[in-house]
Amino acid sequence: MKKLSEIIHQEVSQGRRDFLTFSSMSLLGLAVSSVFPTPVKAAFAALNSGNFAELDGINFYVMGSDQRRFDLPLVNFGQETDEAQYLAQVMFQELMKFEFKNKNGQLSEALGPGMAPNNSVLSMGNHNDTVKDIYYRNQSYFTDNMVEYVSGLLQNSYSKQKDVTVANRKLYNSWDMVKVNANIQQAEKGTQFKEIIDQLYAVATSYCQNGKLNTYNTKADGQYWARELIAYYNKNEVLDALISSFKVQEYVGSGSSFEKAMLKVYNTINKVRALNISSGGQIREDELQEFERTLAGSVYTGFAMNTSWGHQSEKYTVLANRTNFDDVVTFLKTKSGNQSTFWIAFFKKYGEDNFWNGLNSMGLRTSTLQDEAAREKIIREYRELGGSVAPTAFSGVVPANATESFLSVFALLLGVGNFTWLTATDREELSNPIPLMGLAVAFMDTGLNLIKLGKFLDNVTMFIYGSGGKIVNTVADYMAKFSQYLSNLTAKGKHLANVLERQIANKMFLATTTQSIVKVIDICFVGLAALGAALAAYSLYEAVQGGDVGDIIFASINLLIATVMLGVSAAALIWSASVFAIAIAGPLGIIIAVIGIVVAIAQWIYDLLKKEEIKPGPIEIYTRDYIKPRGLEYEDIGSYLCRVLGRNGNMVCALDAKTMNTDWASVENILDHQKPIYNKPGALVTSSHTGKIYNFANIKQPGHGKISDFFRNGATAPISNWSTLNELETCEHAVESRAKNGSTAAIFVALERYSSFSRAFLTRGLEDAPTSNNELKREQLGLAWQEFPLDVVAINGLDKPMFLIFTTQHIWQVKGNELSKVISDFVGAPGEKLTWGYLDALALGTNVNLIYRLGGVGAPETSYHYLLTRDNDGNYTRMKLLRSINRSISQSRIVGQLYQKTQDLFARMDFMYHDGKNYARYGAIMNKSGDASLSLHNGVEFQVPDNGFLSFYKNAFIPR
To answer: Are the C-beta atoms of residues 910 and 939 closer than 8 Å to each other?
Structure first.
């Protein structure tokens, strides 16, 4: 994972954001322990005995950790979790505290016991290494990254405290945590971070499972035992048994075969990594990556072999994909090595069409590809397929007389081809993957076997994720489509039955009930996304270099991470003293591993172990001595406007973007209570080119004023020659677009009295009133029954004025005078509609952000943040999930600003929201061209109970 580790530095402390993985999968194993409990036993043709059997049986995934002798609390994880990884993260955190105390003992003490290092943990070690030795070998790393890490801990503690003084709150909020979290100037730090975590993990294993691994992880023997595990898990019969254990269409909850198989994969990877570290890293990184790809391929192939045969009348099933069938036949006849002679003769005898029709007439519909009864039925009709040149069968059955090898190879190719076509392509006829996967190498020099299963699995994995080296366009494209499928399935598929990805999953697993398919999505596909994030992260080096391929890779990784976090967010968070569990039928686990200093995990560890919250008092000193000197203070850009309920009634208040000061009595404000005129959050608009602020809440008598004078004089001066339609009463939204040549246009979304169906008008500018002549009629928009505009955004600086109109169901684009539907059914399910209060749209530069939540009974509290960008024709047809927010954000409660690139700061989009309880700020870092988001980072978060916040005025901003 050299490529990945070279770039781990690219993003440092993460806050609670959508996380990227680093190459040591041990941390990922910690993150997704829900999908991975105790080892697979039995099932294998033969287990080695003696010491190897003991090594193979060592399982670091436990329900709790008792390390009270090291002054750590008794911890109940609430799920099987990798204790060694937990301890490694505890060690890492204590070393950061140790570094902070060394650099500023007085401030460390002033911040209280929460920042005091645990000397008992610092004294931990084994026969190979100690925690302190790891620190002194890497002291420069801890020195260089201490501020980012400690700032994350301080912010985490701050976010949970309610009684922070206004002065201290303004200081905390002034930290540019987005900039902290997005620090990409740490070029060499990633490799060092990976090495530190791996070394701490190797030490931590000595304190788990009664130190059983100590027998094997010596410098002299570590490499030997690691290679023994690698060799064992490359055997055909072992991999075959592992593949057959991923029984997606059976029970997948706690203790299931699927769960055990997933844990076996991660446990084995973790042990190999730890043994290699103990031996001095004698096994090359590329060899370790190949082994991990092979095991990951067993998971992917396990999904494929658990799909149903289906029927040619049922789209998306195996026996409906004739192109895939033809490609498999061609492959077997031409590229299957010594088997080619058999397959040529077989298809000469039976004919390809007859064989296809024969399979479709056998009643195999709900049987899986590895179902024994289905195989016996096929062999009764085609006895030659029961032949074998090796004492090994594949994927599901290992009969004593080994009669099914040829059929097993055929089913293996058929299943992997169709599963990949469904999840990693655009599902067009010419996009079939089998000819492109390079699988012929698995049929060369096979000896007594029909296939080298390890090589097959490695190539399957590389097809989607690459090899860790340079990524070509095709691999990036497959990675993007695979991540998009998983994202859409997880985000919407478990809530909306008619989402395409859910329909595909239903057809893949025909024997699965409606209730069970939701669990398959929650557990199995979320687990597959987590594994995918780790594998995709091998290619981060390529990603951060930018360019088309790099941007696709980065977006894919973020999407996979967001998918996993969607799985988390759909679950109930259960906090009990020092317990963290996420309930999705075998909880998903702690947190996905991140690139950089892993502040997200640090915050979890801190909350788990803390004696008390960090004292906020000394924060002025910390801000002065650490935040400001490192250029980590938030830019003083101006104020958002918000509506609040204060002591004297409703007010329009300035919310400073830097300090986020919510002490409403001390900020600039206008009272708007007796006869409110600023009561429509989307109708208060600032215009940067005129310097005016407009209020269109009363569409018949709008007002305006100078932005700079708003809090003195308001926006009440009448607009000259304003005359609109009599029946219009209120304006819900008003926006103006200004093109490169200075031409302008505006769109108003207005309501008639007693109507909830809004109407849209396209005028020449904000001072040109809506009339019957400039209305965008329902017929023009092609609006369906009960479909109407919910929001509108204006994009500036393009060749023509540009708008996007978001209706209850579709997204429409207005480019100059051209009107077109650019995205149909943006929720992802045909016919699914949103309504008032569930959607907000923000245009920041040429990027459009869509934030919405699903409505209806049983809908999740999750809010989805999507990014819309232009295609090659300049139309907004591209829409991708940027992140999920584990909260319900109501309409008009999120705003944003675009930061242009400067010498010290990459271009980025910053967002601020209020979820009814907490205020939060987060940001999206842009790529080199500034036209797409690469990654998201949380900023600050805090709570001020019952302080009267009502809504933002999202179209208004007062610059400094």
So the answer is: yes
Coil vs helix vs strand at 466: coil
Please name which of 859, 860, 856, 877 lies closest in space to residue 868, comparing C-alpha atoms. Answer: 877
pLDDT averaged over 10-residue windows placed end to end, the chain, 960 residues? 27 26 32 33 33 93 91 83 88 94 94 92 95 96 88 87 91 89 46 81 94 92 95 94 92 84 88 92 90 93 96 96 96 92 95 97 94 93 78 38 67 96 88 90 79 92 80 79 86 80 92 80 83 68 56 67 53 22 22 34 62 78 93 92 93 96 95 92 94 97 97 96 95 96 96 87 97 91 84 96 95 94 88 82 94 74 86 92 76 87 74 91 74 68 90 95
Q: Give residue-wise pLDDT tens across range 395-453.
A: 443 333 332 479 999 999 999 999 999 999 989 877 789 999 999 999 887 766 788 99
Q: Do 954 and 895 touch, CB atoms closer than 8 A? A: yes
Residue in the structure block whose two tokens are 């309409």: 891
Question: What digits encode the pLDDT tens for the residues 167-204?
Answer: 999 999 999 988 776 653 342 345 677 788 889 999 99
DSSP-assigned states of every residue in 407-430? HHHHHHHHHHHHHHHHHHS---GG
Answer yes or no: are the C-beta atoms of 461 and 479 closer than 8 Å. no
CB 131, CB 200: distance < 8 Å: yes
The Cα 945–Cα 241 span in angstroms is: 55
Residue 587 contacts by C-beta under 8 Å, 6 or more apart in sequence?
33, 34, 78, 79, 571, 581
Cα–Cα distance list, 458 to 329, 357, 437, 444, 940 (Å):
22, 32, 10, 14, 42
Alpha carbon distances (Å) from 760 to 26, 792, 812: 54, 9, 12
Nearest one of 576, 825, 766, 520 to 78, comparing CA atoms: 576
Separation of alpha carbons 723 and 701, rounded Å: 9
Q: What is the DSSP string of 146-211?
A: HHHHHHHHHHHHHHT-S---HHHHHHHHTB-HHHHHT----TTHHHHHHHHHHHHHHHHGGGSGGG
Q: How far apart are CA 368 and CA 363, in angstroms?
A: 12
Number of alpha carbons in the 13 Å side-chain half-sphere of residue 358:
14
Q: Which amino acid is at 597?
A: I
List Cβ neighbours of 942 (8 Å cut-off, separation of 6 or more). Answer: 158, 159, 164, 169, 172, 173, 660, 918, 919
Q: What is the DSSP code string of 769-793?
A: ---TTSEE-HHHHT--TT--EEEEE
* Beta strand 789-795 pairing with 802-807: antiparallel
Tokens of 244: 């057959």
Among all chains, which residue has been given the structure tokens 């029970």?
Answer: 251
Rg (CA), the chain: 30
